[in-house]
From TrEMBL:
It catalyses: a myo-inositol phosphate + H2O = myo-inositol + phosphate. GO terms for biological process: inositol biosynthetic process; phosphatidylinositol phosphate biosynthetic process; response to lithium ion; signal transduction. The keyword Signal does not apply. Belongs to the inositol monophosphatase superfamily. Its EC number is 3.1.3.25. Keywords: Hydrolase, Magnesium, Metal-binding. This is Inositol-1-monophosphatase. Mg(2+) binds at residues 70, 90, 92-93, 220. GO terms for molecular function: inositol monophosphate 1-phosphatase activity; metal ion binding; protein homodimerization activity. Pathway: Polyol metabolism; myo-inositol biosynthesis; myo-inositol from D-glucose 6-phosphate: step 2/2. Its cofactor is Mg(2+).
Amino acid sequence: AGGPWEECFQAAVQLALRAGQIIRKALAEEKRVSTKTSAADLVTETDRLVEDLIISELRKRFPSHRFIAEEAAASGAKCVLTPSPTWIIDPIDGTCNFVHRFPTVAVSIGFAVRQELEFGVIHHCTEERLYTGRRGQGAFCNGQRLRVSGETELSRALVLTEIGPKRDPATLRLFLSNMERLLHGRAHGVRVIGSSTLALCHLASGAADAYYQFGLHCWDLAAATVIVREAGGIVMDTSGGPLDLMSCRVVAAGTREMAILIAQALQTINCGRDDEK
Ligand code: IPD
């Protein structure tokens, strides 16, 4: 424990837990739902309330820090990762699940300094599991060390993915054909659970062997990337090159062999970049 960002890490844990309480309570209540980029891209008052709470508390304690957050970005704030200490926040990951009371909903808080991810905190609020990862210090769930699976064969793999908000016919065809390619490669299964961050936490826990997605955002990836890497996993670009947090695409796996197999099987779906929106 310890390290230069200890105070920030502790603040993230406290706020993720507090946010989780608010979300759990709101889950049972009636929600006013609005749409963003598509009919499947949802936002509720709770997303905004939780984001405002997290940012205002952090700003009070760390006034010089910068913020990238889902609902601020939806209102036009730019997503640029500068060398300054930057918080990257998804107040509710799995908003569609939240709206339907499907119990896979998380708060995700990532932190980067000099464009390098330092730590990630993800609170699975419906199951009260707190996932944490700190650069060089391992990944944990409720205090228990996480370890990815060592699987290298697609024909023995459980693979996770997410559909993403883009639902035009061309995107959907590519999405389905990517799934088909993995199933042709005899993957044991492909799962869509409705939360990118929690899918990556399952990967970090060894409960799945790989994850890929086109059309996710830097706030879906920031915290989870540290957790997967600290659990021994690989997070890379779908081209097989290094991860680009702003590229809206990712492949992650327990082993490099598996990540490369998945990357090679996929057709690219162009979803733009977070820093060009
Ligand atoms: C979304 C969910 C979804 C994934 C999207 C994410 P949100 O996050 O994780 O499963 O497909 O790419 O943006 O909008 O619920 O925070």
